[in-house]
Amino acid sequence: MTDKTVLPGVLIASGNWAPEPWAAPFGREPERPLAIWPDVPDRAAIHYVLAWRPPAEAFADLPNLKAVFSLGAGVDHVVGNTALPDVPIVRVVDLDLTTRMTEWVTLQVLLHHRQHLAYARQQAARQWRELRQPVAHDVRVGIMGLGELGRDAAEVLARLGFQVAGWSRSAKDIAGIECFHGEDGLTAFLGRTDILVALVPLTPDTRGILNASVFDRLARDGALGGPVLINAGRGGLQVDADILAALDDGRLIGASLDVFEPEPLAADSPFWGHPRVVVTPHVAASSEASVLAVGIHRQILDFEAGKPLGNLVDVTRGY
Fold first, then answer.
1. Burial 5-34 (b: 16+ CB within 10 A, else e)
2. Given a cut of 50, is residue 1 above it in pLDDT?
3. Can you tell me where the transmembrane regions are (predicted)?
4. What is this structure's pTM?
């Protein structure tokens, strides 16, 4: 009797996320070594790491590492890891994740467009009063970040009738979406935007990009009576003090924030009780780990069959 061929091993370093759903597809392969951090009996057996906010030591002494798979939409938690070896980093691109992000973005746009926060305050006060409602075509939505998530959200919002534009670092071409790019295009993009949706990755260039300078350049002549900020990218994109100041002086009339730095959001943060702010606990693109894990497993099988890895991160750009 001959021994079964041993497949390349997998290490799950899923941070505060339960590892079991991520491990499930690989656990059905008895010939594939599977380790759950920090229990790694044979580090030489590990060829792939599935990671979410992994500690630096998770990458130490892995002589046969071939690729790292980020378990979330963002990759800043991996790219910034000082112990990361020079191997490909693969981002998650999955229809489930994309759809959930688009659902959240669309929900938040509609909450502000249909004045839900004002109606909620009226309900609490038992007030029956109709508020003026502009049509979607009179409202200009700007998507900051036109990757997989931004593109899908832009296309769905455009189908609902909003005037949608997008901004990205490099030039993009999306049918039906006015596209701006680079620093030269940012001011023009902001100047035509009533609802700003931030979906850019967190990089050294984008850290703190949602600041007073950006809010000052948003449109003041829109149908909503002022601009709204929606951030589902990363907490490091936003300057909290600038958001609060802009809400207080009217440069922003509302905000929906799903991400913060640090997380969880502190119990004494003024965002919790602000009457014009929607807070959600980093759930905009919250997907089923079991669904995403199947996709990662499929990528690994394809890679082992000789196909190239897709959705690779450009480490020099940080996304």
1. eebbbbbbbbeeeebebbbebbeeeeebbb
2. no
3. none
4. 0.92
| 175 & 101 share domain | yes
Q: Are residues 126 and 187 in the same domain?
A: yes
pLDDT at residue 2 above 50?
Answer: no
Does residue 318 lie in a domain region?
no
**Domain match, 30 and 90 both:** yes
pLDDT at 30 exceeding the cut of 50 = yes
Q: Would residue 311 count as lying in a domain?
A: no
pLDDT band (50, 70, 90) for residue 3: low
Q: Would you name the residues annotated as active-site residues?
A: 234, 282
Kindly state whether residues 160 and 204 are assigned to the same domain: yes
Phi, psi of 4 (to 5 degrees): -70, 150
Same domain, 143 and 160: yes
3-class secondary-structure state, position 247: helix
> Which residue range forms the structural domain that includes residue 300?
9-94+287-304
Which amino acid makes up residue 111?
Answer: L
What does the alpha-carbon distance between residue 111 and residue 118 come to, in Å, rounded to a whole number?
10
Q: Is 226 left (phi over 0), alpha (psi -120 to 50) or beta?
A: left
Q: Diameter of the chain by CA atoms?
A: 81
